[in-house]
Amino acid sequence: MNTHFYHQTPAEGRMLSRRNFLGVATFTTAAIGLAPRQVFADPENPVITFHKDAGKAKISITRLRGNISVLEGSGGNIAVLTGPDGKLLVDAGLSESRRQLSEALASISRDPVKHLINSHWHFDHTDGNEWLHGEGATITAHENTRKHMSVNTRMEIFNFTFPAAPAGALPATVFSEEHKLEFNGVTLVLKKYPSAHTDSDISIEFTDADILHVGDTWLNGHFPLIDYSTGGSINGTIQATELNVNRVSEKTIVIPGHGPIGNKADLIEYRDMLVAVRDKVAALKKRGLSLNEVIVAAPTAAFDKKWGTWLIDGKTFTSLVYAGV
Ligand SMILES: [Zn+2]
After folding, report:
1. pLDDT tens-digit profile of 264-286?
2. Cα–Cα dist 265/258, whole Å
3. Are the CB atoms for 104 and 128 separated by under 8 Å?
4. What angle do CA 294, 299, 302 make, to 5 degrees?
5. Could you tell me the strand order of the sheet in which 202-206 lies?
6. Distance 223 CA to ligand 1 centre (A)
7. 200 C-alpha to ligand 1 centroid (Å)
8. Which DSSP letter does residue 112 get?
């Protein structure tokens, strides 16, 4: 573990010490067929970078409709439904952004946070669970979210093992296929995806407002991150995107896990990109090409400029697809 963590603020100390006991694990990405340190050029682990950046995060608030807003800037996109029952959040951001998120939430309304739904188990969507639970939020998620958060869980693509979360951070209510709840007079439908980005992904539909939060089954404007370590796959990601396309209308507001709020046309474009890259990589692999040979063939070239500028570049996406075809 890098020693400069010890210069973090006291508020971050508890989290950092939790991280410290892990040690940053051995550099093996064998599970997805990548050479050590090939995944990210950043010399610092991206998980650490996410946490550090979250302390100085700037949160933007976009008001949608039906008392629903989106907070962007700390981890995954956070949906907020407000009203007399209090606030309901979809996803929790990173705990280092607590101050900024609290300010953003207070600027929407004075209603206290009463409910939190996690779209999946990943840290950039659940790290804020503990403090939000402390503020009074009851947490709901897929059963695999609680399962992965309950134990040390490895995320091979980040070369990082996440420690078991404290009891207060764990979802109190879990489900396997579908779960409905009423809050502020709004019906929310939570549905499990077939394993896609992970094996814990759910969609969260605000039925009356026609708003769908699709979690990390969609990174709008970016190649997908596929977490094979906890059940993700390229074909599952395509399948989830098909489900998203078929489920929404032209009027539906779609909230991706990361990236700007989008719509059906954006989802279709995403699906077509995924299918095109999957088919190219599959054809090359079938001809017997090694991963490195496929990377040299640049099957994502036509898409890199538009989709490959954030976390997952064309080479990494090629590797993720190769592992699953
Ligand atoms: Zn994720």
Report:
1. 999 999 999 999 999 999 999 99
2. 17
3. no
4. 160
5. 178-183, 186-192, 202-206, 211-213, 253-255
6. 13
7. 10
8. P
Distance (angstroms) between ligand 1 centre and the Cα of 231 equals 12
Query: Which two three-digit tokens encode residue 98?
Result: 């607590």
Mean pLDDT of 41-49: 76
Strands 138-142 and 173-175: parallel
pTM of the predicted model as reported, rounded to 2 decimal places: 0.87
Q: Burial, 283: exposed, middle or buried (Cβ in 10 Å; 0-12, 13-18, 19+)? A: middle
For ligand 1, the distance from its centroid to the CA atom of residue 224, given in whole angstroms, is 9
- Domains of the chain in start order, with CATH, are 3-322 (3.60.15.10)
Q: Tokens 């010490």 map to which residue?
A: 17
Task: Supply the DSSP string of 145-165, one letter for each residue.
Answer: HHHHHHS-EEEGGGTEEEPPP
**Largest Cα–Cα separation, the chain:** 61
Task: Label the pairing between strands 178-183 and 173-175.
Answer: unpaired
Quickly tell me which residue has 């695999």 as its tokens.
Answer: 144
Q: Which residues contact 130 (CB under 8 A, 6 or more apart)?
A: 95, 165, 166, 168, 169
CA of 153 to the centre of ligand 1 (A): 13
